[in-house]
Fold this protein.
Amino acid sequence: MITLFLEYLKFEKRASEHTVKAYQTDLDQFQKYLLFQYECSTPETASPPMLRSWVVSLMEESLNPSSVNRKIASLRTYYGFLKRKKVISNDPSKILSALKTRKKLPAFVEEKSMEMLFEEAAFTDDFEGTRDRTIMELLYGSGIRLAEIISLEIKDLDLATRTIRVFGKRSKERIVPVSVSLTELLSRYLQLRAPSEDTDSLILTDSGKPAYPVFVQRVVKKYLSAVTTLSQKSPHVLRHTYATHLLNRGADLNAIKELLGHANLAATQIYTHNSIEKLKKTHQQAHPKA
């Protein structure tokens, strides 16, 4: 049934490969626990106490509460699927409650640091240097996700209207505007990018193959390391940076939601906390009675 569930996620829910892999990992881990602890080889016959027992074992391993919550969410989605398919009549995951977690503010790079990056970083004028700069400016200048930049194809660019077509989670399409300078950079990059009969992918590796997650992550880490001491130096940090800088400069929250491709406003509102923290800091520094 797990295989059927994963196919449902992939083909009907149009979940990303990363999401499907995460569900598979969680359910495989749960299945192994059932077999070892209860000699139960079929998760669909597991009882509520068995599910609770697995969650307790995860907590005893000092697993991060947010990671435990993700695994609980995986069970809920899986058993919800089984119930809709009438494989089970009662959902054993109903007894599970999410753990309390500390709200973590999104990490972002300061504006001055980002200015320094693009003004002082040693981007060469050849294909590799222009490609690296394109990766950094695209992530910071459009707020797209790692999976989205990798899936971009040349046909998704419209340099005349200064927009890019992005396919986000569940293949949801959105149009994202880009700046004049980024449009010019993309144009230069396309001139240097060797034509390939094998792929239409926009971002290519040094050997002309489509870029892959670790490749983009390495590029981002290399350049961010020169301007920030943040422990996280990932493509997602540039997405957080994009959203935070827009909000700090007065952009409408609903507009940011659309640009990021968020399904609801709640996901975007977390960036307001960073702006509030900035206001508090300004108040403490400037107000005589702060």
Notes: The CA atoms of residues 127 and 192 lie 5 Å apart. The mean pLDDT is 92.
